[in-house]
Amino acid sequence: MLSEKLKPKIYKLIISLAALIVIILLLEAGMRVYFFINPQRIDNGSDISAELGWANESNFYDKGIVKGYGEVEFSITKFGFRVFGDTDTTKTKIFVIGDSYTLARMVSDGSTYYDYLKKNSENVEMFAYATGGYGSLQEYMIIDKYYDLIRPDMILWQFCGNDFIDNEPELEAVSVYNDFMVRPYYIDNKIQYLFSVRAAKWKCELIRRSYLLKFLQIKLNVLMARPGKNFILTEHPAFQKSIVTTSKILGLLRKRVGNIPIILFSTDTAYADIIADICATHNIHFIRGVPEAIERAKNGGTMVDGTPYDVYHWNAAGHAIVGRAILDYLIKEKFLPQ
Fold first, then answer.
1. Does 32 lie in the same domain as 159?
2. What is the rounded distance in angstroms from the CA atom of residue 328 to the CA atom of residue 338?
3. What is the pTM of this model?
4. Could you list the residue range(s) of the whole structural domain that residue 304 is in?
5. Which of 118, 210, 223, 229 has its CA 20 to 30 A from that of 175?
6. 52: alpha, beta or left, given left = phi > 0 and alpha = psi -120 to 50?
7. Rounded to 5 degrees, what are φ and ψ at 154?
């Protein structure tokens, strides 16, 4: 039997725990109602997607000042494409896929590298889809989804060194570049949806299913993130796994599109030889020299990005340099007429 002195304390504890549970449930319910009312938007132009993790909103328009880039007039067309050309054209149809570099949220309509290709080659029709934070599997899934509609003559794939992180949940879980979103991963030769955090499997599943816990997890990781705390990718044990996974995804791409040319370029010089080896395995053409062209221009005094606010993503001048490098390659290799 409980002593008379302990009973009030136990009752208070039970009431406190019950009140805490009710508060947590109310917060969870409140967040679910909020995201239900506010179309689950995660960023300007992006929405939650059960299939892709997140995806572009169709027919989106925004105009405003972006620090380091000036006034930007940005739009997304149908199906979430930044550019969606004429599917019935007799011109060479190029399907461009990529991440935030290709989405080019900091560059106005008509000023991206793929716009440069269209303006400087009369024989091309462009179709460009990209979303910030996308990994190779998500990019492949977009191509798979729209390939039969577009029937492209060529795939232009923009790669980034961070894709190796995005393609492997073990790497993303320990990276400061973690997108903290449920995304599809290619694991054991099949698509699996995971919320990549450094925690026990049951905790990951709990966080994945709870709006409140996911929100708190994101805020906690943002607060804890510090410059220079990121790991050295090539030294992580999961890096080799990511190389294999990335190769498998590009193998899926090759199988899906058949014998049409696939052209790949990277936004940085990191892992260039590894990327080149993967491309060679799947008969994919790898353009070298794109980030080097950006670096030469920058060293020569040309403003190519949003310094000091963003030293990575290109401005309109940077996109023109990238577009020129790609066009030169396509002409040199006879993918396009001179």
1. no
2. 9
3. 0.83
4. 42-332
5. 210
6. alpha
7. -160, 145
